[in-house]
Amino acid sequence: MIFAGGTGNPFFTTDSAAALRACEINADLIVKATNVDGVYDKDPHTNKDAKLYKKISYREALEKDLNIMDGTAFALCSDQHKPIIVFNIDKIGDISKAFKGEQFGTLVC
């Protein structure tokens, strides 16, 4: 099942909506499409030496203040142990990779 969009409620981002719905239906995975190839140690748009993480824990992401998604959504995913795959929406084929279980982007768990 795929959800797209927001909740229609103020103060809830699309990240929060995705996390909320994923928890409500007990989803196996949250797919976070963005404009970079995954989670980096710093902004890859302004830092050519930015390092891409293939896998990172919720705790490490919080400690490093990586801002993967809004705080409410991230806390909900962490509390409910919902893995997040972060990938580049602009790369052709990446969405299908997510649903095939292929390794790419960054897995947050």
Can you walk me through this structure?
It contains four helices and six strands. It is of the alpha/beta class. The protein has one domain: Acetylglutamate kinase-like (Carbamate kinase). The radius of gyration is 13 Å and the shape is globular.
Short description:
This protein is an alpha/beta fold and 109 residues long. Helices cover 30% and strands 17% of the residues.
Shape: globular
**Given the helix and strand composition, which structural class is it?**
alpha/beta
Q: How many domain units?
A: 1
Question: In percent, how helical is the residue content?
Answer: 25-40%
Mean pLDDT: 89
Provide tags for this entry.
alpha/beta; 6 strands; 109 residues; two-stranded antiparallel ribbon
Question: In terms of topology, how is this protein built?
Answer:
Elements: H1 14-24, E1 30-34, E2 39-40, E3 52-53, E4 55-56, H2 58-63, H3 71-79, E5 84-88, H4 94-100, E6 106-108
Parallel strand pairs: 1-5, 4-6
Antiparallel strand pairs: 2-3, 5-6
Helix pairs in contact: 1-3
